[in-house]
Structures are given as C-alpha cells and as structure tokens.
Task: structure prediction
Amino acid sequence: LVGAKLAADTTNPALSLGIETDSRYVLNALKNGQKFENEGFITTSNKSLIASVLTSFRTRTTPTYTKWVKGHDGNERNEGADKLAKEALSKDKASFVNLLQPPNLKVTGAKLTSMTQSLAYKAIMQMKTRKNGTKRKRTELNLMRIQNCVEDRFGYIPTKERFWESIRHKDFDRKTRDFLWMTCHDAYWTGTHWSRPNMPVDLQERAICSHCGVIDDLTHILTTCEATGQEIIWSLAENLWKRKKSTLAWFKPTLGDILGCSLAKITNPKNGKPVTGENRLWRIIIAESAHLIWTTRCQRVITNEGRHPSKSELQNKWTKMMNDRLELDCRLTNLKLGTKAIPKKLVLRTWKGTLTNEEKLPNDWTAKSGGLVGIAVEREEEGFG
Result:
C-alpha cells in the first residue's frame, strides 16, 4: 500500500500510471475504495493508510491502470522487490510516510444510504472506545500471553484481531466461545476480584484457594490447582493426543496456550503445509478440557460445598465429553445439513489414531456412530482408582 501511494505521489501527474503487483490486498483496496469511503472506513483495517492511498490516486488527473502479476516467478521485478523487502527487515526504525490528506479530498463519516444497523453499532463502539481511551489491563496481559505462547509453540505472532476472530471458530460451540472470551477478559469472579476494598471481609476470603492457599485465579484453576482435577483431566488429554502421533509433542498448556489453542499451526515437516486434522483435534482437546476443568471447579465450590470429585468420576466425565463431541462430528457429516455439514474427510483426519479398535473399523466409520465408535482411553488402575 505504501509503495502504491509513493508511486502515485511521485510519478509525473501528466503521465498515465501503471501498477503491476502480486498483492491482491492492494488491488482490492483500490477496487473497493468507493465502498470503504461510503461506509466511513468503519470496518476497514489500516483505515488511515488506505484513506491516504485513495487520496493520492484521486489527486491524479490521468488514468491509472492496475494489473495483478504472479509473485515469485523468477522475474526481475519480483527479485528487486524481494531484495528491498529484505533490506527493510534490517532497518532500525520505520521510514516516515506522510498520511495527511488535503481537506477538499478528505472523506469523513459514512453515507446514510450505506449505513446498516450492524455498521452503526460498530461505529458507536469505536466512538466509545476513543472517548474512554482506556484498555482493560487484564485483557491486554492475556493477549500478550497468547501472542508469546503462539510464537513459542508455532513460530508466528498473531494479531489481537486474529485472536478475537479465532475464538469464534466453528469448531467451538457457544459455551466454549463464551468461556474463552470471558477467560481472556478475566471476567469471571475469581482471584483478586474478590479482594477489592469494597468487598465484605467474608467474601474477600474467596480470593484464596481453600485447598492450595494461594490466589485462586484462572491460571491457578486451569493449570496448577490440586483440587479442581485439572491434573487428571490434562493427563487424559495427553494420553489421547499421544495416540495421534503428531509432530507436535505434548506439553501441559499454560493459560496462554489454552486461550490461543484456536491459533495452532501444526505443519507437515516435509512440505510445510498445515495438518488440518491435528490442528482441529488440538483445538477441540485443549478448549473442551479447559472448560471441563472450569465447570468441575464451579460445581465443587458452589454446588457441592467443597466436595472433591473422585478420579473415576472425572475420567468418566471427560470420556463422555469427548465421545459426545465425536458423535456430534459424525452427525454433522450428514449431507442433508447442506452448507452446515462438515466434510467427512475432515472428521476422519481429526480422529484418526484416537479410536478404540480402530484397525477393525471400516474406512468410513462416520455412519457407525452412536456408541459403536469411541475414543480410546487408557485406564490406569493406580491413577484412577
């Protein structure tokens, strides 16, 4: 985008301008410029830059032509672009780019004819955010945890917008999406939420885990608490994941790993392509197990008045949860569901290697659900009583 802007700004205005690029993002920004302006750039990413780019092109009086070219095909132009890109990576600081727009070409607000209820709601939320000028510190801390964990595990840093989009993944049901959203915002009443100065003394005691004697926050509940059954549940998840024989070795998830499970990028070491079945199973195992740990803790503290569930009870709950999910996947392959159906190949890849007596099952076992197909659970006599 910056390159297109500089081309428009520096090329002789008496000459026609031709832009060849392998970036569809640039071409789409130019093609949909009128739409972005009509909507007041409310939902447009990089809005300041795109608005400035459009202004630079509108100041020209001669025609501008755009053409998409295939990238990295060995031609000299791509080699030059790659060379400049590598040089940019070694720069200590970014170059200054003037994004100011002439007042007569600056578009403000959205057209009434382009306004929808959804667009108006998003505009109101943006105005409230700018007015308040504050961010939730706990949320920002969790977002940093997610980015650090994804970088450590999968070698890339996701944007915050990418995370919020990922927790709405279709592999998650509504309760799981809500759980991930609430956990990232640290919106559940746990830990230091109870130790606020205006809290009665008897309620402030809830900030401490009655079993471990430490702050009972979500990190403690989901990863270290000895009373929630988290250790047993993560052990079950580990056993199932190891049966998958993935290139991603098992590790006990931290809070950042749990929240960022939807951002997993497990790739084939031979060709570097994502392994869809393993990525999907990872999302399901981590998110569902974490949610079960949370609900088990709530039942113990609120409903059961501190009574701890037995090891066999936890195993049965987890096994039923995973088998229910497997059953749901099989049902969702029904072609009668139309666009909402899940491809059979995706379901088969997801659960491959994790089923009981899998070698005796037909190639397509999705039609044999309902108790005939289930995950393989290793029952440890000493570990589960």
User: Anything to note?
Assistant: DSSP finds 17 helices and two strands in the chain.
